[in-house]
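Input record, target 12 of the design panel.
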């Protein structure tokens, strides 16, 4: 899968009506529209390719038409991230 294909999927997901995503029982409800799964995948792919947090955020904002949630960027780049690229 190329970044162009992921970007196209992200645009298609963004154009589709957002359906609220239910979290696990007892989890707090998220404010705002649901984030397409392709946004998370695109963020991970860009991080693997060497793009930084700011570049990923800008790209997602351009494609989504709104800033990506900080939780997504924290998941990909944060200190508590389970993803390990870019660390010594």
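The sequence produced for target 12 reads:
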């Amino acid at each position: 899968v190329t970044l162009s294909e992921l970007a196209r999927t992200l645009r298609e997901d963004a154009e589709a009506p957002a359906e609220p995503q239910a979290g696990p029982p007892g989890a707090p409800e998220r404010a705002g529209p649901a984030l397409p799964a392709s946004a998370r995948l695109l963020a991970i792919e860009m991080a693997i390719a060497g793009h930084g947090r700011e570049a990923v955020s800008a790209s997602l904002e351009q494609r989504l038409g709104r800033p990506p949630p900080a939780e997504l960027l924290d998941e990909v780049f944060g200190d508590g991230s389970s993803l390990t690229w870019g660390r010594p």
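The mean pLDDT is 76.
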